């Protein structure tokens, strides 16, 4: 079963604008990761934030994590048409013998040139 | 570094036949590999987790006798879809996790079409 929810499910913005996607999850986690997927392709890892971190930056990406609210956000600044893709958050929490990673439903981002 | 390959990238098979998909970590040893299925416009659904040398752990609702997983070495896991049906048509993605880390590296996926 899926761990979390993403909001919004679809987002359409103009090139140059910022895009914010949110992710909520239900159980305790070790880490939260964001991935990008172009249509029909594999996943590209964007950023990992650990449960003891609150914010992380990578280029035009900014990720926040609020473990008290069990939520995370991904901000893409100065968006480009090439950012058009689906974005997924994924959480992992340790079970007895391995770390199980569960994906949220994803946000489909369209950046209009 | 941290490259994961999948083979084949696309496969079309007839209903009732079996299909094997390979997942390889090319430049690292993966103690754990994960298999996901993704239907169009949906998210990835975890099917099973395999640890090298032990039986795979299947998620609820995934038939272990239909989706056979073998993790024979630290660089190879295989998923065999047995007696495939059209409803098994999907995008199958594997990921590999190096020992002692939380990061996963994803393969490019395999598009299975069952006719």
Topology:
The complex is a heterodimer of chains A (113) and B (115).
Chain A: E1 5-7, E2 10-14, E3 19-24, E4 31-37, E5 43-50, E6 55-58, E7 61-66, E8 71-76, E9 85-94, E10 99-103, E11 107-112
Chain B: E1 4-7, E2 10-13, E3 19-25, E4 30-38, E5 44-51, E6 57-58, E7 67-73, E8 76-81, E9 90-98, E10 105-106, E11 110-114
Parallel strand pairs in B: 2-11
Antiparallel strand pairs in B: 1-3, 3-8, 4-5, 4-9, 5-6, 7-8, 9-10, 9-11
Task: Write up what this structure looks like.
The complex is a heterodimer of chains A (113) and B (115). Chain A is mainly beta. Chain A is 0% helix and 58% strand. Chain A is built from no helices and 11 strands. In chain A, the strands form 2 sheets. In chain A, strands 2, 4, 5, 9, 10 and 11 form a 6-stranded mixed beta sheet that branches. Chain A is globular and about 40 Å long. The mean pLDDT of chain A is 89. Chain B is mostly beta strands. Chain B contains no helices and 11 strands. Chain B has strands at residues 4-7, 10-13, 19-25, 30-38, 44-51, 57-58, 67-73, 76-81, 90-98, 105-106, 110-114. In chain B, strands 2, 4, 5, 6, 9, 10 and 11 form a 7-stranded mixed beta sheet that branches. Chain B has a 4-stranded antiparallel beta sheet with strand order 1-3-8-7, with no helix packed on it. Chain B is globular. Chain B starts with a strand and ends with a strand. Chain A binds chain B through residues 1-2, 30-31, 33, 35, 40-43, 45, 48, 88, 92, 97-106, 108, and chain B through 32, 34, 36, 41-46, 49, 51, 57, 59-60, 91, 93, 95, 97, 102-109, 111.
